[in-house]
Design brief:
The protein is an alpha/beta fold and 136 residues long. The protein contains five helices and five strands. The radius of gyration is 14 Å and the shape is globular. It starts with 5 loop residues before the first strand and ends with a helix.
Length: 136
């Protein structure tokens, strides 16, 4: 098991607009980030911004985790995401692809169901992932 660290960038609750969205990024394999991890994080963030622009969403929070723990429920950033969902601040979380949630399908399904039970949906921002899921 990899020890996870998380970071959160937030907008004050008093200024949160409608259609507010949280971005979840789980790519970095170590702290401090290496060059490849930093570039991958930036690509994920850019894809999230582009997706949000196309769908009329406003990103007001970004939560990151270290990649390595297969069960997202064990990651500090995912736990923060769940808290955000429980607080009802957002209805959508943008994630680059399913592997950022977990490389194990049963954990992806369980995490998606858990967030749905809390009133939050997952949208995948990587075009190949998004297209494949929309066709189902």
């Amino acid at each position: 098991m990899t020890t996870s660290t998380s970071s959160t960038q937030e907008t004050p609750a008093s200024t949160i607009p409608d259609r507010s969205t949280v971005v979840y990024i789980c790519i970095r394999r170590s702290t401090p980030a290496n060059t490849a991890d930093a570039a991958a994080e930036e690509r994920a963030a850019e894809e999230a911004r582009s997706y949000a622009d196309r769908h009329g969403l406003t990103i007001v929070r970004t939560i990151t985790d270290l990649y390595g723990e297969v069960d997202p429920m064990q990651r500090p950033g995912w736990q923060r995401l769940r808290q955000v969902a429980e607080d009802g601040e957002f209805d959508t979380v943008l994630v680059r692809w399913t592997a950022a949630v977990s490389p194990v399908c049963k954990y992806v399904s369980a995490a998606a169901k858990d967030l749905a039970d809390l009133g939050m949906q997952i949208a995948y921002t990587w075009e190949t992932s998004a297209s494949a899921l929309e066709m189902k």
